[in-house]
Amino acid sequence: MAAAELSIVLPTFKERDNVAELVRRLDAALVGVAWEAVFVDDDSPDGTWQTAKAIAAADPRVRCLRRVGRRGLAGACIEGILSSSAPYVAVMDADLQHDERVLTAMLEKLRSGTCDLVAATRYVEGGSAEGLSNKTRGTLSRLATQITAKVLEVPLSDPMSGFFMLRRDSFDAIAPRLSPAGFKILLDIVATAGPSLRVAEQSFVFGKREQGESKFNIQIGLEFIGLLFAKLTGDVVEPRFIFFILVGAIGLAVHLAVLRTSLAAGVEEFRTAQIIATIVALTSNFVLNNEITYRDRRLKGFSMLRGFIVFCLFCSIGALTNVGIASWLYSEDPMWWVAGAAGAVMGAFWNYAISSLFVWRTR
Ligand code: GDD
Ligand code: MN
Fold it and tell me: Thinking of the domain 6-227, which architecture would CATH place it in?
């Protein structure tokens, strides 16, 4: 058997009923091309990896990498690409929604030497996103595409596409800088490589899913927003910190709203109203951080109660530190806004560090 010219990486999670058909379709579409297929399965409970390995046992062009204790589409693609060695490598969904018949045209473009990556796109003439499961998904996909176009300078009409082919040497050069979280592997590759990566596009029709179901969820949407922020700050600021600050800003609004309502509703002492507002704001911050900032480490049941108590205790220390620093600065140099902002910034860093270390324990 000739060494493969094209490695096709196929991430799977619960796609048992799609893998055999996919291999049949690749075989039919890639006549005359030396190809290999690498399934990367995240230990699917439906037995996808057993099915893929059974096919691999009979067909030397097929392999299956079973990952254990890990989840994530982008990470699976990265490991699949790294596990192979053909000069060209493609990534496509394994649920038959990506049209394998455009692979040869994509390969031709790379072979011609005029580009380093070919992105399959639904949003140019000849392409279509009809197959998205519902209207909301369609709207979200278009919205994310527009935001990306405004925020990042990437030459992609469909940055959310998970279907592309590129030169291996282009990938190898940036592999250590890619993020394994989320769905947006193509966007990450193109944004990380920068303008030196020559990008071409290939239209395709995104098909309907027949078997199994989509794994898209809120978490994936949040990870996308995080990636945009990270790329905007040149990878200096962690996406998590941005979410933490946003939640803190919402907390401030909640605090002021509750304070005003309490006073209007007849709470006599300012002190009492301020205490009520603080408790409500702390609770809302905790809940929002649990749902958004630390969604991947979400606390439930008893550990949520424990986390809430620890959060309140440490945030009180944060508040004291904030007041202490601000008062000291103010006594040195009575510029109220410098002192106030410095106190608030210190308090925010403290709360973030403590939340990451002791409440949601991310490291
Ligand atoms: N190994 C692994 N691990 N594979 C995964 C995981 C995971 O955690 N999550 C999803 N996959 C696999 C699925 O089994 C499928 O083969 C492929 O990745 C795409 O996942 P779907 O769940 O079918 O995604 P979708 O159809 O909703 O979203 C598609 O369109 C989006 C744009 O609208 C994908 O192509 C996305 O990449 C794309 O952003
Ligand atoms: Mn799909």
Answer: Alpha-Beta Complex (3.90)
